[in-house]
Amino acid sequence: MSVLSRRSALPEEQRGRTREAILAATRDLLADGRAFAELSVGEISIGAGVSRPTFYAYFQDKRDLVLSLGSELEADVRAVAGPWLRDEDDDLRATLDAVLHSFRTHGATLGAIVEAATYDPEVATFWRDFHEWFLVNAAERARRADPALAAADAEALAYSLVWMTERCLTEHLSAQRVEEEPLLNAIERLWRSAIPAAGAPLNRARVVRPPSA
């Protein structure tokens, strides 16, 4: 019987425990300061208490593993940011607090994804797609707040805000430079300057460009 056949014969609960043990072992190794590129399947398997063949019964390779970890991060952040982006909740500060908490909770995964995205095209695509969901939803929220806002302007606004927020929070967690409260205050002000709170006046100021020569 092959490894895959044995896995399919296992109870669902046991399969879930084995998969989670592999993910948890990877998180632990990363939390110890190891670079994802340095981790071997052997180390991860030993940490999880499984054999190498068992590892490959659950994950095709290390890329598949880090993408699975990334999907957990993605689901968590979408869950906490979604209500504000969909206009179901206007408490932006609580949303930013929750996003930072998710980033911190998944800090080892976040670092591994950012690292692997620099050399693995599939992980880089995942990371861009991770941001794309927020870009689309932030642009839609911006246009609901200001129906006169052109689609291209809303998209550029969302692109700037989403990538700025992710980079600030990621850098804050990896090498803190400023205090957390002022950082979140600054990020909130930047978002509110573009997408005001419900009932607040719109700021339709536009950059005045010099005439072309």
Task: Describe the 3D structure.
GO terms for molecular function: DNA-binding transcription factor activity; transcription cis-regulatory region binding. InterPro entries: EthR_C, Homeodomain-like_sf, HTH-type_TetR-like_transc_reg, HTH_TetR, Tet_transcr_reg_TetR-rel_C_sf. This protein is mostly helical. The protein has two domains: 3-58, Arc Repressor Mutant, subunit A; 62-194, Tetracycline Repressor, domain 2 (Orthogonal Bundle), CATH 1.10.357. 72% of the residues lie in helices and 0% in strands. It contains ten helices and no strands. The protein has helices at 3-9, 12-31, 41-48, 52-58, 62-85, 92-105, 107-116, 121-145, 151-174, 180-194. Helix 2 crosses helix 3 (41-48) and helix 9 (151-174) packs antiparallel against helix 10. The termini are far apart. Mean pLDDT is 91; it is low at 206-210.
Q: Under the CATH scheme, which class of the largest domain?
A: Mainly Alpha
Work out the number of β strands.
Answer: 0
CATH topology annotation of the largest domain? Tetracycline Repressor, domain 2
Radius of gyration: 21 Å
Strand fraction band? under 5%
Tell me, rounded to a whole number, the average pLDDT.
Answer: 91
* Overall geometric form: elongated
**Structure class:** mainly alpha
How far apart are the first and last residues' alpha carbons, in Å? 75 Å
**Tally of individual helices:** 10
